[in-house]
Design brief:
This protein is mostly loops. The protein folds into two domains: about 90 residues, no CATH class; about 30 residues, no CATH class. It has two helices and two strands; from the N terminus they run αββα. It has a two-stranded antiparallel sheet. About 10% of the residues lie in helices and about 10% in strands. It comes from human gut metagenome.
């Protein structure tokens, strides 16, 4: 049967490994399938999430303080965020985007890849 892991904060260090993992505040860390770290009323702290995916929030996540996310459908959101991975960059870069052209100040439409290059000079690889 699928385990539901949830390390809650308080004066207890968190850890959670497995299917519906979450880990909330404290010293957190989550690891597997739906990973997460700080949802549910959030109380930020040490973060880290590491992977997973295939539905509800599609894995990793985090939200604040010391953040970090790593794999799957990562997101890290705030404070000292670091995200590594993201398995759908190829789809994202070909998505059409509306942005403000920095030379004309007018709206422009391009792929995300072309918009980033126009705005920063860098290519997404």
């Amino acid at each position: 049967q699928n385990a539901y892991s949830k390390g809650l904060y308080g004066n207890t260090p968190s850890v959670a490994v497995g299917k519906n993992s979450i880990a909330n505040g404290g010293t957190a860390i989550a690891v597997g399938t739906y990973a997460t770290v700080n949802e549910v009323g959030t109380s930020f702290s040490q973060g880290i999430a590491i992977g997973g995916g295939a539905l509800p929030g599609q894995g990793a996540t985090v939200i604040g303080d010391q953040a970090i996310a790593i794999g799957g459908n990562t997101k890290a959101f705030g404070h000292s965020s670091i995200v590594i991975g993201g398995d759908d960059a190829d789809r994202m870069t070909s998505t059409r985007a509306v942005y403000t052209d920095i030379t004309t100040g007018r709206p422009a439409v391009a792929t995300v890849s072309d918009a980033v290059k126009a705005l920063t000079g860098y290519e997404i690889k």
